[in-house]
Design goal:
The complex is a heterodimer of chains A (286) and B (152).
Chain A: H1 3-35, H2 45-55, H3 63-84, H4 89-108, H5 113-144, H6 149-153, H7 164-177, H8 205-227, H9 234-254, H10 260-285
Helix pairs in contact in A: 1-3, 1-8, 1-9, 2-8, 3-4, 3-8, 4-5, 5-7, 5-10, 7-8, 7-10, 8-9
Chain B: H1 2-10, E1 13-18, H2 24-31, E2 45-46, E3 55-59, E4 62-63, H3 67-76, E5 82-86, H4 88-92, E6 102-104, E7 114-116, H5 123-141
Parallel strand pairs in B: 1-2, 1-3, 3-5, 5-7
Antiparallel strand pairs in B: 4-6
Chain lengths: 286, 152
């Protein structure tokens, strides 16, 4: 692929991702409402929420938390750009981890007990899903010989045929990263209020909007990573990623939130075991 | 600017605070979230955080204990915001109006934009009140209404 083409792809992805992410969030809320027997908000609701938040007046609890919110946004954007440039998956995941850390540090730099409790839980969530994402990158390395996104796109056969258990583990990580039940312990989305929104408690107005748009980028990035599991042809991978997205929404609606210790146990127990088993099977059968 | 203004009306997030009534109105507010009324149709979310809220739904008579809490919640909500007093108690003190521990209605402490009558207020009336409040919210956006500052 020439440089011009990859630049076009990156710029296109950067421009389209908020649109796609917002629509996916809208679908999420609509579907959740329907599963609960309600009408639900219009599809464009996330964009209305975003516009509303941008237009609210400015209030800042701690300037450091604003800096961290920007760090979260910019680091997510960096990881997103590197991914769509076809770069190293390990670097993408490390930058994404730093972005998640920035969200927690932003909450830690305020004096709100709710934000701090949420930050603690955010770090626990990272503890739960980071090993899965990194080991998934390692599994991709074992299969394609490289850590890069390019190598996956240029591989002869879909990864899913060789790494089905890794795929299941990545689905668990997706659930945690999308902050869905049973793993929504850090933020308690929507009407769940026992943490007063956890890490987001002290953010308001345009900074909350900033975090929201970073979430959209993050969601598109994660779904793009899932699409990599069937990159020949890529549209099948996109369908699989959408399927995974709807599966998470469905699980979100049938599952209750569980304790953090259960989350770490389940994600490490299931996730790491599945990935290692997959790698062992691969080396035995090959 | 058109989209931002439209977004404000389409996405009202509600903070619900009970200043110590009988909880009848609170149950009716929560009933608005159920499939029968489903206020999320209008983009309304019941949010537990004043810093994210646009509309304050206050129920119950204000008393000396929670007067400061109410004031603080109001101050923490970023502008533009509207206050809806739900039920008779929040409007005037209701059956508690001459109790020694109460101050009376919510408007003794913070400026109120819309009063919803009823004891308890019906969900339909609450939704009507919120829709009325949205009209005021839109005006506030255009600078039509200014807030009183300082204590009342």
């Amino acid at each position: 692929m020439t440089l011009t083409w990859s630049l076009i792809i990156v710029v296109g992805a950067l421009l389209l991702a908020p649109l796609v992410g917002g629509v996916l969030r809208g679908l999420d809320r609509k579907l959740t409402a329907r599963l609960q027997g309600r009408m639900g908000p219009p599809l464009a609701q996330p964009f209305y929420d975003f516009g509303k938040l941008v237009g609210k007046s400015h209030s800042v609890s701690s300037r450091a938390s604003v800096a961290w919110a920007w760090a979260y946004f910019l680091l997510t954007l960096t990881a997103f750009t590197l991914f769509f440039l076809g770069q190293d998956l390990l670097v993408v995941f490390f930058i994404l981890a730093f972005a998640g850390g920035a969200l927690a540090f932003g909450a830690f730099s305020t004096r709100s007990p709710y934000a701090r409790l949420g930050a603690n839980r955010e770090l626990l969530q990272m503890l739960a899903y980071e090993p899965i994402l990194l080991l998934a990158a390692v599994a991709i390395y074992f299969q394609t010989g490289k850590f890069t996104v390019h190598s996956v796109l240029e591989a002869g056969e879909p990864l899913l045929l060789y790494l089905p258990l890794v795929f299941v583990a990545v689905l668990v990580a997706l659930g945690i990263k999308m902050r869905k039940s049973p793993f929504d312990i850090a933020a308690s989305e929507h009407a769940h209020q026992e943490l007063v929104r956890g890490v987001y408690t002290e953010y308001s107005g345009r900074h909350l909007a900033l975090i929201e748009i970073a979430h959209w980028y993050e969601l598109v990035l994660l779904l793009a990573f899932i699409a990599l599991f069937w990159a020949q042809p890529l549209w099948v991978g996109v369908l699989i990623a959408l399927g995974a997205f709807f599966l998470e929404i469905w699980i979100d609606n049938i599952a209750a939130r569980l304790r953090w210790s259960w989350m770490v146990g389940a994600s490490w127990g299931v996730g790491i075991t599945f990935i290692v088993a997959n790698l062992v099977l691969l080396s035995v059968l090959a | 600017m058109g989209f931002l203004k439209r977004a404000r009306v389409k996405s009202p997030w509600i903070l619900h605070y009970c200043t110590g009534g009988c909880n009848g109105c609170d149950i009716e507010i929560l009933a608005c979230l159920t499939p029968l009324y489903d206020v999320e149709r209008f983009g309304m979310l019941n949010i537990g955080n004043p810093k994210h809220a646009d509309i304050l739904l206050i129920t119950g008579p204000v008393n000396w204990k929670n007067r400061d809490v109410l004031k603080r919640l109001y101050d923490q909500t970023p502008d533009p915001k509207v206050v809806v007093a739900v039920g008779v108690c929040a409007a005037t003190g209701g059956v508690f109006h001459n109790c020694v521990n109460t101050l009376g209605g919510v408007d003794k402490v913070i400026p109120v934009d819309v009063y919803v009558r009823g004891c308890a207020a019906r969900p339909e009336a609450i939704i009507d009140g919120v829709v009325l409040a949205l009209q005021k919210l839109e005006q506030k956006n255009s600078g039509g209404v200014a807030y009183a500052t300082g204590t009342r």
